[in-house]
Structures are given as structure tokens and as C-alpha cells.
């Protein structure tokens, strides 16, 4: 995986990206695929467009596919514009994530965006999650619906990772902020990671009596990626020295949540969040230490799913009601 770190600085392309809100035109340092990434698996199912900046990943009965960044990064802003497969996509998972699982098998870190397919007519769900230093026994999943159909057009999905926070963005809306707390200890991702994008058959993971298996009658499933941004501190895997990218265009990279964005984040979460581990009383009698309980979110989730987000007393012994959500009970175990 080494050897690519000289490439990062030299061949960034600057392309105007229209933020989907239509409110602003920003210029992100977009990168050609080959300058930042390399195919990971399912070669024949990965197609690079003639412009060199967009990529198709497909899933058919033979294989899924994926790509990985040349470099390891310690902190930065990582982004891709993604268009998901349309129609019947049950069992299909598209993931855009950071991990160092290949280097640290027992104590890996991970930051995930996962797109969980659905049956025709039902919306895609997106899931975010983090692991730090092998904290796989504590899932920190959240799931959301979206305010648009992500298979209809490209939308930008971004991760900002610093040593004090992780922010997930959809277009220019931050949807989740994890502030590092002392009590999180090693559970906050803190070792260099590579970026991945994959499409794969999650039938065995997302089963619900076989009902949600991938149906290859509708294959190939194609996810499109463009506007790739890898803006961070690339780390030499041997010497572990970080080289930060100070490319032009960096001034448009967000560094935190503005007050206006915080309002947007609040209303997004109240409207579209369908699951948060912080409120899952079946799973955590006491929420993990970094959780900041928002009474409005708690109330809304409780109405949405009183079994999972209730007070854990009235509904004892009725766990089977939970199975409605369990096809989404997804954890990132790649
Ligand atoms: C991470 O895990 C390793 C091995 O389990 C442990 O030795 C180390 O102290 C942990 N680091 C942090 C920051 O918790």
C-alpha cells in the first residue's frame, strides 16, 4: 500500500462542485481516480470513466467490487459524490469508509458510511458508525432516511476526522458529530486509516428469513462515484510520518459545524434519524459515555419504535417486535 504518497500533492484537479442545496458553489480539490485510489477487488466490475474522475462499481452474481486509497491518512476530510443503484436493491450494501483493519486485526479503527439497499419502492437507509482500537463490542450505529432519492442523482457524502471530532456530512448538511471525550478512551479512532469504497452482497448479513437476499434478476447493481476528495495528512506506513496536504482549495474544506449548520443538523436528525445507539435501551442500559441525550430526539425515536427506544421495562419479553428493524441491524464487519 506504500509508495503512493508522493502522488497526492501534485495532481489535484480543481473542479467547481455545485453544493446540492443550491445555496453555494464551492471548489473542492477533486482528484483523478488513479491519483488517489487503486482497485481493490472485483476488477472487472470496476470501470473508470474516460474523464478519469468518475468510477462505476458493480455487483453481479460473480462478485462485488471496490477501491482503496493509495495512502493511509491520519485525520482529514474525505468525500465522494455517490449515486446509488435504483429500484430493487434488497441485500445490496454500498460502503464508503475508512479502516485500518488490514494492519491492526485486534485493535483496528473504522469510520463508516454504509448504504443499505431496500425493496422496490422503499427508500435506501444510510448508516454511520465508528470503531476505535478494536471496540467492536460497542456498536455506535446511527441510521437515517434521506430527504432525497439517492439513486436519482449524485450527492456528496463526507467525513471530517480530526483528533477531537468526527463529522459526517450529506451534501452540506452535517448529520452527525462525535466529539471526542476522555471517557471514550481508545474507542475514538486514532490510528492512520485508508479510504475504501465497496459494493457487496450482504444477503447473509441483512437477512430476514431470506426475504431480503440480493435478487440477481436485477443485476448488475451499479454505484457511481465521482468528485473524489482525499484531503488530509498522508502517513508513511513505515516511518509513520504525516505529510499534510495544503492544496489550493483547502479553504473550502469544513473544519467544524457552523451555527447555521448546527440548526440544519438538528432538524435533519429530528426528521430523518431512525436509529441511534445512544437511545437503544435494549442494547445499552446506560448509554456509552460520549452520548449526549437530546430529549426531542429521544421522544421522537420512542414514538417511532417504543420497543427499542422505550424505557426497557414495559416491553420486556417482546423482543420479537424488534425484528422489524433487525434487517438493518447492521454492523460493519468487512
Ligand atoms: C489499544 O489497544 C491496545 C491493545 O489492546 C492497548 O495496548 C492500548 O493501550 C489501546 N490504546 C488505547 C489508546 O486505548
Automatic annotation (TrEMBL):
* Annotated InterPro entries: Beta-glucanase-like, Beta-glucanase/XTH, ConA-like_dom_sf, XET_C, XTH
Task: Please name the taxonomic classification of the source.
Answer: Eukaryota, Viridiplantae, Streptophyta, Embryophyta, Tracheophyta
Say yes or no: keyword Signal present. yes
Signal peptide (UniProt feature, chain positions): 1-24
Q: Which SUPFAM superfamilies match?
A: Concanavalin A-like lectins/glucanases
State the name under which the record lists this protein: Xyloglucan endotransglucosylase/hydrolase
Q: How is it modified after translation?
A: Contains at least one intrachain disulfide bond essential for its enzymatic activity.
Give the annotated active site.
110 (proton donor), 114 (proton donor)
One GO molecular-function entry: xyloglucan:xyloglucosyl transferase activity
What EC number(s) does this enzyme carry? 2.4.1.207
Q: Which family does it belong to?
A: Belongs to the glycosyl hydrolase 16 family.
Which cellular compartments is it found in? Answer: Secreted, Cell wall; Secreted, Extracellular space, Apoplast
Look up and give the organism this protein is from: Mucuna pruriens (Velvet bean)
